[in-house]
Design a protein that fits this description.
The complex is a heterodimer of chains A (about 500) and B (about 300). Chain A has 3 domains: about 140 residues, 3-Layer(aba) Sandwich (D-Maltodextrin-Binding Protein, domain 2), CATH 3.40.190; about 120 residues, Dipeptide-binding Protein, Domain 1 (Dipeptide-binding Protein, domain 1), CATH 3.90.76.10; about 210 residues, Dipeptide-binding Protein, Domain 3 (Dipeptide-binding Protein, domain 3). Helix content of chain A is about 30%, strand content about 25%. In chain A, the strands form 7 sheets. Chain A has an 8-stranded mixed β-sheet with strand order 1-9-10-11-2-12-22-13. Chain A is globular, with a radius of gyration of 23 Å. With about 300 residues, chain B is mainly alpha-helical. Chain B is built from 13 helices and no strands. Chain B is flat and about 85 Å long. Chain B starts with a helix and ends with a helix. The chains are: A alpha+beta (about 500), B mainly alpha (about 300).
Chain lengths: ~500, ~300
């Protein structure tokens, strides 16, 4: 059960000393569904920070410039509609000294796509079918016209030779990547420690030792930061900010996120099958008040399901304005001059997203104010997810995280009948989404995405909410900035005054 | 005695089987783990879900799954964790030392502090000391451990910086979680010992001991406590199983790497096999504890074994 670690290791105490004096950083990372379950990147990766320290992706999306930037691939080009060619850096080696080759890439992608493996991350590679080796440092990825680059943003190759020699289980427990940190020790669901890779192909990080601790309780994480046992904590809820900022050694740092909060509407249930009722609801909710009073102003209203930092976001799409009078008028037009009562309560998770349950209380009150009366049902993440995935939600709080930075990800995930489009879908929209993934030209992609965003917006396939920042508590002496992709990169971090 | 032992053993096995069976069916009724395994990725096709269902062996009829589960369980194989893809039982057993360390430390604190409070209160009945002890006991039994844990961390780790807030390591790491876990049993022991001690101290043989001119300490400890402690010792045994349950909360708050925190995470991850295995481990621990207490009791009091 332990990956090369002894009994009762104490990463907390070690880092408490190390945090200030030695060159190390401890991060207390959230619990819930975000535990690191596998260090094998063919089974997990994405937002999980330990992976991005041990492994490197092929490309990386820069949310600031909205451009794809080189990582393991120095360059790439489109060969035809369904094929892109990537040229790997020649100097990259795995931690064991083996050179990174195109064979490693093809092997890793082949493993993810292998139905026998039933990889939980396969869903992120639906636009990609396979990789073909051209030579040792060149490979082609075959897939849909749009979607190859976003997939390469989360794809991290393993060393084929070692993987095949030691087997999947051993590789998972003693992972070898090309990243800026070597794997040192892992106690499943408890902590992972890493050591700097001085032979890293990029700039060598200044922090020598990194520990990720997986802590379930938010209050515990906050106390760990205050007591110096952790240097960074994630998922700081807005109500914790004041307490943290009072502490002279702690900074609160935030960054615009890739996650959009919204309300799921079951558009196949009466009376929500009437677009006027849905429009009325969109006008009834005072999102700006939710952002300002509950989220500390660290967010913005959102019309589309893609946040501003995702490519092909339509900046001209205006959110529905808060107008209760207009909402009542629309309800009257839909045949409900006195409103109506919904038997099924509004459903919300508690603590999955920072303010999910308290925002839901405001939403229910806003809806009641225009005549839509319903109860409120709250549950922890997994129970809520059960209901949501079993189509047992009439109205519910939800969010879509777009860790791949793919323009169509959230739209496909929530409105395509092949995926989870079971609360709202439409044949015309399905065609638009399919056409988008076959579009090569960036201008045409932008135009197609604009149409998709407008179609869903006008039909109120969901009620757009807001994009809240990712908020972190950080030791004030640590030079480090959070990233919009929800990963914590300590590659460029350093302690200010030693 | 052998017959009594055998009967109790059979009963213990039936309880563990019932616990395992209840969890097996209850877990399958509440949710579909396959959907949750893909909860991060909305882009999953029905074929991919089916592949995962087959991989996790959830595609066969439930009675077949149950038969497989029982057959493997009796051989010590509780299956592979859905989430970690590791054998569940070794993962849990690897955490057992941490949980036992915490539980026995809490039990030791309960035995020592509970006894002192109980004796002091019994020797000074209806005085301010007695009332204060009763108040403390009431507090210990009613204060929620999740709240107490955070307050303790805030005072001793954040404000004073005397003790670490979380993790497992040297003795200093054990103090806060063990104290937090011990509040309920400490209060229980104190209350029980106070009443039994008051009862014992009014007995004739205590008066005789005092009349013989024995020092009060000897009277209280050798003649009083030895007799009054029997129900408290029994209670400590029973409290041990309660402590194992309480460890889930305490381990989670203090990030103590025991079975409890792993079980909590498994529940939130809907890791069926891990929750199932944890329920069996907890079930066995409770049953074994009760079984040992029963055996000791029967050994002490012959009336029980012939009843």
């Amino acid at each position: 059960m332990l990956a090369s670690c002894g009994k009762g290791s104490d990463p907390g105490a070690g880092s408490r000393e190390a945090g200030g004096r030695k060159n190390s950083v401890t991060m207390a990372a959230s619990g819930g569904a975000s535990y690191v379950l596998y260090m094998d990147p063919t089974l997990q990766g994405l937002r999980f920070s330990p992976h991005t320290h041990v492994y490197d992706p092929i490309v990386r999306y820069n949310p600031g410039t909205q451009q794809w930037e080189p990582m393991l691939a120095l360059s790439w080009e489109r060969i035809d509609r369904n094929r892109m060619r990537f040229y790997l850096r020649r100097e990259v080696e795995f931690h064991n000294g083996s050179p990174l080759t195109a064979h490693d890439v093809a092997f890793t992608l082949g493993r993810i796509k292998d139905p026998e493996l039933a990889s939980p991350v396969n869903g992120f590679y639906h636009a990609v079918s396979r990789a073909e080796v051209i030579d040792d440092h060149t490979f082609d990825v075959i897939g849909k016209a749009y979607g190859i680059l976003p997939a390469m943003n989360v794809f991290m190759p393993v060393d084929q030779e070692t993987f095949e020699a030691v087997g999947a289980e051993a590789y998972n427990l003693n992972p070898i990547g090309t990243g800026p940190y070597h794997f040192v020790e892992w106690e499943l669901d408890n902590f992972i420690t890493l050591r700097v890779n001085t032979d890293y192909w990029g700039e060598t990080p200044k922090i020598e030792h990194v520990t990720f601790r997986f802590v379930s309780d938010r209050a515990t994480k906050m106390l760990m930061l205050q007591s110096g046992e952790a240097d960074i904590i994630d998922e700081v809820s807005p109500d914790m900010i004041d307490d943290l900022e009072k502490h002279p050694q702690i900074d609160v740092r935030s960054v615009p996120s890739h996650r959009t909060n919204f309300i799921t509407i079951n558009t196949f249930r009466e009376p929500f099958d009437d677009v006027r009722v849905r429009q009325a609801m969109a006008h009834a909710i005072h999102w700006q008040e939710i952002i300002d009073k509950l989220y500390g102003g660290l967010g913005y209203r959102q019309a589309a399901l893609s946040p501003k930092i995702i490519e092909h976001y339509d900046p001209d799409l205006e959110p529905y304005d808060y107008d209760p009078e207009k909402a009542r008028q629309l309800l009257a037009e839909a045949g409900f001059p006195n409103g109506f009562t919904v038997d099924d309560p509004f459903k919300t998770p508690v603590g999955w997203m920072p303010i999910d349950n308290i925002a839901s209380e405001v939403i229910v009150a806003n809806l009641e104010a225009v005549g839509i009366r319903m109860g409120l049902w709250m549950a922890e993440e997994a129970s809520y997810n059960d209901k949501w995935l079993n189509k047992d939600v009439t109205l519910g709080f939800f969010s879509c995280g777009n860790q791949m930075f793919a323009a169509d990800f959230c739209y496909n995930a929530h409105f395509h009948p092949n995926f989870r489009g079971f609360y709202f879908n439409h044949p015309q929209l399905t065609n638009m989404l399919d056409d988008f993934s076959d579009t090569v030209d960036p201008d045409q992609q932008r135009a197609a995405m604009k149409e998709i965003q407008r179609f869903v917006h006008e039909n109120v396939g969901y009620i757009p909410g807001f994009v809240g920042d990712f908020i972190y508590g950080v030791n004030a002496k640590l030079e480090w900035e959070p990233s919009s992709d929800e990963r914590v990169y300590l590659h460029n971090a350093e302690w200010r005054s030693r | 005695m052998q017959r009594y032992f055998f009967k109790r053993f059979i009963r213990a096995v039936i309880v563990v089987w019932l616990v395992a069976t209840t969890f097996f069916f209850a877990l399958r009724m509440i949710s579909d783990p396959v959907e949750l395994l893909f909860s991060q990725s909305g882009m999953v096709t029905p074929q991919e879900k089916q592949a995962m269902r087959e991989f996790l062996k959830l595609d066969s009829p439930i009675h077949i799954q149950y038969a497989d589960f029982l057959f493997s369980a009796v051989q010590g194989d509780m299956g592979h964790s859905f989430r970690f893809r590791q054998p569940a039982l070794p993962m849990l057993l690897g955490r057992l030392p941490a949980t036992l360390e915490l539980t026995f430390a809490a039990l030791a604190i309960a035995a020592v502090i509970g006894s002192i409070l109980g004796i002091v209160a019994a020797l000074k009945p209806h005085t301010l000391v007695d009332h204060f002890t009763i108040f403390l006991s009431l507090l210990g039994q009613s204060v929620p451990v999740f709240w107490l844990g955070i307050v303790l961390m805030l005072i001793f780790a954040v404000q004073l910086g005397w003790l670490p807030a979380t993790g497992r390591g040297d003795l200093s790491h054990l103090i806060l979680p063990a104290f937090c876990l011990s509040t309920y049993p400490t209060a229980s022991v104190a209350r029980l010992l106070r009443s039994s001690m008051m009862d014992v101290m009014s007995q004739d043989y205590i008066r005789t001991a005092r009349a013989k001119g024995l020092p009060e300490t000897v009277v209280v400890i050798r003649h009083g406590l030895r007799n009054a402690a029997i129900p408290a010792i029994t209670m400590l045994g029973l409290l041990l199983s309660r402590l194992l349950g309480g460890a889930v909360v305490v381990e989670t708050i203090f990030d103590w790497p025991g079975i409890g925190s792993l079980a909590y995470k498994a529940i939130s991850l809907r890791d069926f096999t891990m929750v199932q295995a944890a329920s069996v481990v907890f079930g066995v621990a409770v049953v074994v504890t009760n079984f040992v207490v029963d055996m000791i009791y029967a050994w002490i009091d012959p009336r029980i074994r012939y009843a």
